[in-house]
Amino acid sequence: MPNWWRHYHRDMLGGDLGAGVVVALMLLPQGMAYALVAGLPAVVGLYASILPALAYALVGSSASLSVGPMALTSLMTAQAVAELAPVTGLTAVELAAQLALLCGAVLLLCAVLRLGFLCALLSRPVLGGFTGGVALLVVTGQVETLLGSTASSTALGVGTLLALYGARLCLPPRWGRLAPALVLALATCLVAWGNLQQSGVQVLGAIPAGLPPLGLSLQPSLWPELLPSALLLAFVIFVSGHSSAMVLAQRRGERVDDGRELLGQGLANLVSAVSSGFPVAGGLSRSALNHVAGARSQLAGVITALLLGLALLLPTGWLSLLPLPALAATIIFAVLGMLDLNGLRQAWRYDPRDAGVWLATLLSVVTLGVEEGVLVGVLLSLAGHLARSSRPHIAVLGRMADGESFRNVRRHVVETREHLLLLRIDASLFFGNATAIAGRVDAMLTPAVRELVLDMSAVNGVDFSALFALGELNATLARRGVRLHLAAVKGPILDRLCRSSLLDELDGQLFATTAEAYRCLCSAELAE
Amino acid sequence: MPNWWRHYHRDMLGGDLGAGVVVALMLLPQGMAYALVAGLPAVVGLYASILPALAYALVGSSASLSVGPMALTSLMTAQAVAELAPVTGLTAVELAAQLALLCGAVLLLCAVLRLGFLCALLSRPVLGGFTGGVALLVVTGQVETLLGSTASSTALGVGTLLALYGARLCLPPRWGRLAPALVLALATCLVAWGNLQQSGVQVLGAIPAGLPPLGLSLQPSLWPELLPSALLLAFVIFVSGHSSAMVLAQRRGERVDDGRELLGQGLANLVSAVSSGFPVAGGLSRSALNHVAGARSQLAGVITALLLGLALLLPTGWLSLLPLPALAATIIFAVLGMLDLNGLRQAWRYDPRDAGVWLATLLSVVTLGVEEGVLVGVLLSLAGHLARSSRPHIAVLGRMADGESFRNVRRHVVETREHLLLLRIDASLFFGNATAIAGRVDAMLTPAVRELVLDMSAVNGVDFSALFALGELNATLARRGVRLHLAAVKGPILDRLCRSSLLDELDGQLFATTAEAYRCLCSAELAE
After folding, report:
1. Looking at the predicted structure, is the pLDDT value of residue B181 above 70?
2. Which residues pair with A485 in a beta bridge?
3. Is the pTM higher than 0.80?
4. Are residues B51 and B144 in the same domain?
5. H or E stretch at B398
6. Among B330, B364, B385, which residue terminates a domain?
7. Which terminus of chain A has a lower count of CB atoms within 10 Å, N or C?
8. Residues B445, B371: one domain?
9. Angstrom distance (rounded) from CA B203 to CA B157
10. End-of-domain residue from the set B385, B405, B440
């Protein structure tokens, strides 16, 4: 029995039941639509929404995460499958199942190896640019279906889109989230009533009734070729599910367990592979609906899955008239919400470099492809981080009026002494910046300076290369008659320095605080 | 006229002349030996020691750097040329000249684009492991020549090696450095006197007399294939020359100019390409000899070059009897000194991770190849840097007896309050660690804590992803009735935070120092 079941209270049932019904209404058309985005038959989207959701509910840690087909993963599946389908002679459905299998295996392996921390590699700008780029790709892919080939198609598609935006403006958010299901039901009725198929409106067509067929024939020869896509998909599945679960857990004051999330997502994908599905993930928008609609536990997801299973057991003829232009409109409406221009604006105001990474990722996704885009984004954000730590801020310090604190001379009214230079280095010292910092420090000396104190309060690390640079700086300064002192060295660094010869070679002293260095080096001057 | 010539004093001439002669005596056999290492005729090593050295003297910034053939660059040249020679039908000499041309072009381009800072990518452990690995490769390549095919060969080779080690032990360092030239002269005399060629001792053979032939036929079709090797060679040439120049400049209290170094090395390689040479660099051991022997200016290098030119103009027959086993012994003797086991030991004591990077680089160079080894080393040290900043130290602080300073409770006797948790985060906050830090901070709370102060004195940056993580941490804490405060935020970070909504959303306050936060939050408790 999963943990949540053991602590289940009867008064949680109402919320779970309501949320389960609401999410099922959203997932029924959405699952089919995202299967179409992935280049698969619509019914595969429903298969991927049933057993994988049950599997997640069994081990996943989030009470409100709704696991199933998602725009991001569908598009990535489409790209991975499209490349291989012509070469291998397998159907897209078979390839997608192999991909889900690999994703599941990778996620479970990450759970075992405790690699959850790797998802930190996807910074917020990269995630934002990536999601935005995928949204644009999905929209361009759907425009043709939205407009169709006849006037009736175009009218139905554009009409649905307008109706969705109208509903968002007019309805309260709680009801607005159900708008896609209602509008689609209306559009289906319209097709049936007006016999619009005759006017060239494409419809979904027959959905085979019956539960998902189980079973999977392993195709190990394909795995090497699918692996790169599977690795990236697993990465995106985990980050997307994990960040959504975090947001929701925060609203409830709960915690998310990395390991259990990886297990849950991994199991869901394995189950998707053996139940005729394709890669699945937990997305924020559907999970937020689940939360808002009252989900109190994983039971809400179980109810959604059971309802979708029921829909496949009942006669599915009524689904066959669902008009594709209207379905395309709901997809476009959903994914355009992923293009978070407000987040981009905030990033721009906060730090243009972060906004640059965002835009570069978006452009790379759109022009180079989904996988290449993520790679460009991750590399750019890593390079940006290194570049920032390579050119650190160095502050000249002076004594504040309280006599104890020392602050940047440019920002505060402080007391300084001519023979004594106090510098605070705002960076960890490592091979990438140590030599450059030593050079800059050297260049900041005036001829009157006799004592140089490095305030190390902001130095969180000194690697082996930096240790040498400090030794060389000390030697260079000594030759010019300047003593190098260190102040406020952190404990872990001091432990390490004691195992080197630097402290013996140092011409100056080691002070516990900059205040102590100031007192000692100024009184020495008076005594001379 | 170069700068050093305009400030030349007559009393510097003695030193320069002495050093020029001494280095020429070392370079004559060494240049030929390194040409053999590169898989080229011995005379090419002399060509590469004449005009390139003059070119460096014209623009280079170091007074004592001796530019010419080096073990590192020779081995890299050998590997790059060996791959292409059979495919292209060109001779190794022609290919090596094209390689030198590309190296020169890359270095000059780096000078124009001011890319000198990139050499910081080669950390000390990577440089140490790389040099050590190359040394081992060169030694294994020379063992066959050292032992030769007859007993006389073996005796001569091993005898030379023993004589060199004996000279190092017995002679003062100043004379010891001339030992290779003396021992080789002795060995040559031995060959001439004993007619050892007849006993199967291989000798150098005829050296064509005359100055280096000028000219170069451009082979642009080869450049794409040579470019990867040229990029890495340029990198190694610059780092090796730059670090040697730095060490020597320090002894003289001078500074090294990145841009002029790049120009000097670039020009030297271009000139090497057009004067029948191969890639050249400035190494530490020969430059140190130059410095120790009294070099006062770039004139010492000019004199060395002129003497080598003179040696080529005089009859070169006496060189032809130089025994190859003895030459191999001097190479082995020279490169084994590059295997800096003492540096490895120091790195191990200081930080085993740095020693790990060192060994991994060495092993990769030996097993995978020179270029792959450097790549592995650079990637490992970057990954290590990221890993360190991803799992930072977080200290719980308490008030010291002086009432003003706050230190780690584990290292000092300090006063703490139950309702107030003071944490100092010892890292810049960025996408790679922000979420993990927020999680760790959250987990450090005890139920009694009502106020959480983050001491930001060691936080040197907060990127856009970390900004969100702080906002989320504040929200999570607020839901549990804990207020988040920030103290000692650095000016540049504060400027940035003011452009975001974090400070408005923060439930707690912003304090200038942790002491202020402590006073304020403890007196508030008393007042309640």
Report:
1. yes
2. A453
3. no
4. yes
5. strand B393-399
6. B385
7. C
8. no
9. 12
10. B385
Identify all chain A residues contacting B490, using CB atoms and an 8 Å cutoff: 393, 426, 458
Query: Are B208 and B151 part of one and the same domain?
Result: yes
Encoding tokens for residue B295? 């070099």
Angle at A333 between CA A48 and CA A247, to 5 degrees: 65
Q: Is residue A454 part of a domain?
A: yes
- Pick from B309, B300, B311: which is nearest to B275 by CA? B309
User: Does one domain contain both B295 and B406?
Assistant: no
**CATH number assigned to the domain comprising residue A416:** 3.30.750.24
> What's residue A293's pLDDT?
81
Q: How far apart are CA A320 and CA B184, in angstroms?
A: 93
Query: Is residue B228 one of the residues assigned to a domain?
Result: yes
Q: Do B354 and A388 touch (CB under 8 A)?
A: no
Structure tokens at B42: 């011995």
Q: Is the pLDDT of residue B383 over 70?
A: yes
Interchain proximity B124–A427, CB inside 8 Å? no
Please choose, from the candidates B435, B338, B300, B460, the residue with its C-alpha nearest in 3D space to the C-alpha of residue B34: B338
- Judged by DSSP in three states, B394 sits in strand
Could you list the residue range(s) of the whole structural domain that residue B309 is in?
A: 11-385
Q: Could you tell me if residue A368 is inside a domain? A: no
Total domains present in chain A: 2
B202 shares its domain with B326: yes
The answer to whether A282 and A247 have CB atoms below 8 angstroms apart is: no
- How many whole angstroms from its chain centre is CA B225? 25
φ, ψ (nearest 5 deg) of residue B203? -120, 170
Long-range contact pairs involving A500-505 (C-beta distance under 8 Å, separation at least 24): A500/A467, A500/B346, A500/B349, A500/B350, A501/A471, A501/B346, A502/A467, A502/A470, A502/A471, A502/A474, A505/A471, A505/A474, A505/A475
Residue B486 to residue B466: CA distance in whole angstroms: 14
Integer-rounded Cα radius of gyration of chain B: 30
* Tens digit of each residue's pLDDT (9 = 90 or more) over A84-93: 888 888 889 9
Pairing between β-strand A406-408 and β-strand A451-455 as defined by DSSP bridges = unpaired
Q: Which of B391, B387, B388, B384 is nearest to B125 (CA)?
A: B384
pLDDT of residue B358: 94
Query: B389 and A428: CB-CB below 8 Å?
Result: yes
DSSP assignment string, B210-278: SSPPP-----GGGHHHHHHHHHHHHHHHHHHHHHHHHHHHHHHT----HHHHHHHHHHHHHHHHHTT--
Grouping H, G, I as helix, E, B as strand and the rest as coil, residue A465 is helix
pLDDT at B411 over 60: yes
Is A393's CB within 8 Å of B472's CB?
Answer: no
Sign, Cα dihedral of B263, B264, B269, B274: positive
- Do residue B359 and residue B416 come from a single domain? no
CA A364 – CA A130 distance, rounded (Å): 9
Query: Across the interface, which of B121, B350, B405 has its CB nearest the CB of A513?
Result: B405
Q: Please state the φ and ψ torsions of residue B205, each to the nearest 5 degrees.
A: 85, 180
Nearest CA to CA, how far is A349 from chain B (Å)? 6
Give Cα B91 to chain centroid, integer Å.
31
Q: How far is B480 from chain A (nearest CA, A)?
A: 8
Q: Do A463 and B123 touch (CB under 8 A)?
A: yes
Evaluate whether residue A383 is within a structural domain: no
The one-letter amino acid at A346: Q
Contact A472 B250 (CB under 8 A): yes
Same domain, B462 and B371: no
**What is the mean predicted confidence (pLDDT) over A437-465?**
90
Residues 6+ apart with CB under 8 A from A78: A37, A38, A39
Q: What is the reported pLDDT for B504?
A: 92
Q: How far apart are the first and last CA of chain B?
A: 80
Please state, in angstroms and rounded to a whole number, the distance separating the CA atoms of residues A68 and A289.
14
Of B388, B431, B490, the CB nearest to A124: B431
Cβ-proximal residues to A162 (8 Å cutoff; 6+ apart), any chain: none
Residue with tokens 């006599």: A403
